[in-house]
Amino acid sequence: MKKKTSSRSGGASSCLCHDAGPVLTELLRRLAPPEEARRHFETARVEFLKGLRAVIDDRIARRSKSKVRGQPIRVE
Question: Which residue of 8, 35, 43, 75 has the fewest C-beta atoms within 10 A of its own C-beta?
């Protein structure tokens, strides 16, 4: 029995993407934002995470406070 082999230069491709990888890579490269915008988005992402951390820290601090039970009564 002969085994079927495929080559990039001819014949049918056995890859499910039909050798679309380089085309998709170029498409994604063209759709990517410019470097300046990418840096801005990265900074914004970090600032968002810092804000989320501040909210979580505040919630932890409120939950960690000891609850006062009862109220003081002044006795004469």
Answer: 75
How far is residue 9's CA from residue 64's CA, in Å, rounded to a whole number? 67
Q: Which tokens in the block code for residue 11? A: 């014949």
* Tokens at 22, concatenated: 């380089």
Structural domain contains residue 15: no
Q: Can you tell me whether residue 17 is helix, strand or coil?
A: coil
Domain region containing 43: 34-62
Q: How far apart are CA 32 and CA 37, in angstroms?
A: 10
pLDDT one digit per residue (tens) for the chain, 76 residues: 555 555 555 555 566 777 788 888 899 889 998 999 999 999 999 999 999 999 999 999 999 887 777 788 889 8
State the DSSP code for 33. Answer: P
Residue 41 has what pLDDT? 94
Domain count of the fold of the chain = 1
